[in-house]
């Protein structure tokens, strides 16, 4: 790891051979990162059953190819929260990206700008949002419901001043998930990633066994967050409000009734509640409940262009990418570009073979859960 580096390109590693898949990039990242940083990034909560289920449920979805549909020039372009995007993907909010590479969020934002996709800036970014805005990337700003409400207000002001196109409130962090790897590793963030009160809090939390990042996180999150606060938030900002971390169809229906501008079906990549369903499993009921009242995005477990097409076929409006971006980030901006180009190539391949000249056609694909070769449930066709 090169966290003390001042940012010269020479410090940025290159993959041993050209990676063909996100899994190849992940293997490379595993060799480059310190073991406890790797564990923090790739790990999940509890026995990691939700983390694994995200993957197996995606892999179990078959897409039935359509033929004779002129796929000579497939287009992956779409619109995400009202902004044109070159692919139906955005980068998910992820904290403290300078943990992975000295250029951190800046490298990711630049890669997003080049790839033409939005970047969601974490409420716990290790790079100030105005610096990220200077890259020209489309930015969405993520919020956590901090007990220090003034900080939420500051984040909103900064987001608006930085030209962000949306605020994404993550609603699945009443406390940090029990991430056993971090607890066993006595995981502590290196100094210099956080600023202000956060830096002080992290330093104070870092002196005892267990996960100091979890200890600190639990002191700053307000578990009293409820629907009244969503109304407050909508009144505080002119930006579209997105709720991230919805899994239950009833919550999705409530979100639509409250007039939120989009939801993200997410289990936080299996990092919060181990025991939650996979997001791809939760998606059909959520879509039914929302009934087109707002876009429904999804994340957690997406590792290939085929996975992205699976979500689009089931009716998602787009996919947020988490860990694949951080795996690429070990190689700085170029590494993130590599991840995005692998995913784009795979998406084009999957679209071509399934007869999708564009993403509207993807929504018409028949999807089948392959296990046991049962007929597709009505909700999935
Ligand atoms: C290292 C790491 C840090 C994360 N930090 C945040 C965060 O600050 N805010 C947030 O809402 N979600 C955070 N997430 C969750 C992601 O936004 C996203 O929901 C999840 O990573 C998607 O799953 P995937 O990694 O399998 O793609 C983080 C995830 C990782 C791996
Ligand atoms: C520091 C954490 C709160 C960031 C996060 O959301 C995560 O690690 O999943």
TrEMBL record:
<keyword id="KW-0285">Flavoprotein</keyword>
<dbReference type="InterPro" id="IPR000262">
    <property type="entry name" value="FMN-dep_DH"/>
</dbReference>
<feature type="domain" description="FMN hydroxy acid dehydrogenase">
    <location>
        <begin position="14"/>
        <end position="372"/>
    </location>
</feature>
<keyword id="KW-0288">FMN</keyword>
<comment type="similarity">
    <text>Belongs to the FMN-dependent alpha-hydroxy acid dehydrogenase family.</text>
</comment>
<dbReference type="InterPro" id="IPR037396">
    <property type="entry name" value="FMN_HAD"/>
</dbReference>
<feature type="region of interest" description="Disordered">
    <location>
        <begin position="1"/>
        <end position="20"/>
    </location>
</feature>
<dbReference type="InterPro" id="IPR008259">
    <property type="entry name" value="FMN_hydac_DH_AS"/>
</dbReference>
<feature type="compositionally biased region" description="Low complexity">
    <location>
        <begin position="1"/>
        <end position="11"/>
    </location>
</feature>
<protein>
    <submittedName>
        <fullName>Alpha-hydroxy acid oxidase</fullName>
    </submittedName>
</protein>
<dbReference type="InterPro" id="IPR012133">
    <property type="entry name" value="Alpha-hydoxy_acid_DH_FMN"/>
</dbReference>
<dbReference type="InterPro" id="IPR013785">
    <property type="entry name" value="Aldolase_TIM"/>
</dbReference>
<keyword id="KW-0560">Oxidoreductase</keyword>
<dbReference type="Pfam" id="PF01070">
    <property type="entry name" value="FMN_dh"/>
</dbReference>
